[in-house]
Amino acid sequence: MLKTILSSQSVPAVRHSIGALKQHPVPRCIHTRTKPRISPPPKLKSSSTDHNTSISPFGWGLLIIPATTFGLGCWQVYRKQWKEGLISELERKIHMPPVPIPDDLSDLNEMEYQTVTVRGQFLHDQEFHLGPRACIQHGDSHTTGGLFSQKEASIGFLVITPFKLEGRDDKILINRGWVPKRFLDPETRREGQVSGTVELQGVVRLPENRPQFTPKQRGAIFMYRDVEKMAALSGSEPFYLDATVASTVPLGPVGGQTRVTLRNEHLSYIVTWFSLSGFTTWLWFRQIVRGKSF
């Protein structure tokens, strides 16, 4: 039948139909099945307990750094309280009424910073010098007798003189006070070398240990309060008093050279150690627990 239809049409008409099909092709319909896109579920943050199980022994060992610094901070809190109590005790002793020097001189070992009254004579031919030291000035006492100028107050020495107690065979050491360097030689201040029996008040001081890198004693000049060595050289008992400012005489050493203050820098240590403890704890949590790095 197809052949009959084709044969009934002319050849040119058939060719014309094929050409039209080539120029205007029939669009093809393609059916595709699409599935709805499913977004992945959100990631859940793991809890800290999950991380703790993965911390290595080395990571746990790093906690010793913040723990140690925290312990040092607590120790400095205790030290600060102890130092403040000690300063208060020294202030209390320094303001106690003076008492006579005890018959048993060994009792002075338990009386540091207390004021005692003594009576006797200075042995000026055996004096020692301790320094160099700056002058501790009390009011206008440094102007007594015009011994030194204000500019000289930073360079000088303490005059340590053996003192023979009245009515006893005992000799002790007394720090008469401060003199400028140009008056170190006793001959330059003969007017200030008091003679005869005198009564004065002095603050009990104990020997001090030799500071690190301090040279040894040379001649009659000491670099630190070496009471044992001074006593051995002068034949006196190893007990030492700082004469009060009231003992100052014209052209003589300036008394009152007792330093009562103690260094108290524990507050800065407390801040330093606790700050280090907090910072290292934060670093440990960030890098070990959270696993973050810088």
Automatic annotation (TrEMBL):
One of its GO terms (cellular component) is mitochondrial inner membrane. The chain crosses the membrane at residues 58-78, 267-285. Pfam families: SURF1. Keywords: Membrane, Mitochondrion, Mitochondrion inner membrane, Transmembrane, Transmembrane helix. Belongs to the SURF1 family. PANTHER family: SURFEIT LOCUS PROTEIN (PTHR23427), SURFEIT LOCUS PROTEIN 1 (PTHR23427:SF2). This is SURF1-like protein. It comes from Anopheles epiroticus.
